[in-house]
Fold this protein.
Amino acid sequence: MKDIILYHGSKSGLNGPISPLSRKYCDFGSGFYMGTQKRQSLTLICNIPKARLYTLKVDLGGLNILNIEVGIDWALLIALNRGKMEIIRGTPFYNKYKKMSDNKDMIIGHIANDRMFIVLDRFFSGDITDEALIHSLSALQLGKQYVAITNKACSQINILDEQFMNTNDRRILKSESERNRADGIAIAEEICRRYRRKGKYFDEIINGGVSYDESH
């Protein structure tokens, strides 16, 4: 597999070797997060005065990779890693998603960006169904993220460039981030109306142990 160019936004800059040490409750758990879209990475750090953007070259050769396509399994893996499935911890349904990343070096999946975060949150909160979620996923343009979750994967990441943002850049990106979030709210409202009561709610799925693909 060829090398790939990715981007990473850091709040205060990278110091020392790259490590899989993000905060615990991220989309795919603790890891080193990188995106395919430069603009997306920039909007994540636009509020931080000392933030830096890194351009990276990543060697995917020899890595055990989980490539998860956007859909209900993607959403439920995020739910598990964000602590939304603790109520069913230890059940076969919980363990199915817990084991997805076992023995993997890197996870590749779509980013829950500013717009998608709103829709996912509404799904986890029980405001919209899985059908509403699936249709919203197809309506939004989501970039992909590559998450190095082992030191082996991190050792195959090389920094090509480091970029600082000035005050004007941060202001422009902050406005863009706010617009994206507002777009997400509008999309969620429309989908909620269109697919009201169609499909299953998050608590029904995790308590019944039935995924979208198995129930439709």
Observations:
- Confidence is low (pLDDT under 50) at residues 210-216.
- The longest helix spans residues 167-194.
